[in-house]
Design a protein that fits this description.
The protein is 69% helix and 0% strand. The chain has 134 residues and is an all-alpha fold. Helix 1 packs parallel to helix 5 (112-121), helix 2 (43-52) crosses helix 4 and helix 3 crosses helix 4 (79-105). It is elongated, with a radius of gyration of 18 Å.
């Protein structure tokens, strides 16, 4: 039997929610900073496909092309940066899903999900894919 009061539980939930938001904001800042100057190598195809709304974008990703097109309509920064920033936002949404899943699976350890998302945010596959257009 736990000796925690309902007030302690509410404080713990608020604290873990704040820590989760800090991790997600940090991940977004990291990924957008990496997208800063577009490396127009592999990202060029996805950015141009999004701008022109062509089917020649990433294979099997028409949704990414349409969301990328919406990003090209925002008049801030370079075209490649805008499309890469949307990819970074998608990566952060996936990290938020990791936090939600972790909280559902490991309810006894409130910070476990946030730590898992923080580790995933620094994984090379997330930082590479989340910071490039496509």
């Amino acid at each position: 039997m736990s000796s925690a009061t309902p007030q302690d539980d509410a404080r713990t939930r608020r604290l873990t929610a704040r820590v989760g938001l800090v991790v997600l904001a940090g991940a977004l800042a990291l990924l957008v900073a990496r997208a800063g100057a577009p490396g127009w190598g592999d990202a060029a195809d996805a950015a141009v496909a999004a701008y022109r709304v062509e089917a020649g974008g990433p294979p099997g990703a028409p949704g990414a092309v349409m969301v990328g097109k919406l990003a090209t309509l925002v008049p801030v920064g370079d075209l490649g940066f805008r499309v890469a920033a949307v990819a970074a936002l998608a990566a952060v949404i996936a990290l938020a899903g990791i936090i939600a899943l972790g909280r559902a699976l490991v309810a006894d350890e409130p910070l476990a999900a946030t730590v898992g998302a923080g580790v995933a945010a620094t994984a090379p596959v997330v930082t590479a894919a989340g910071a490039q257009a496509g």
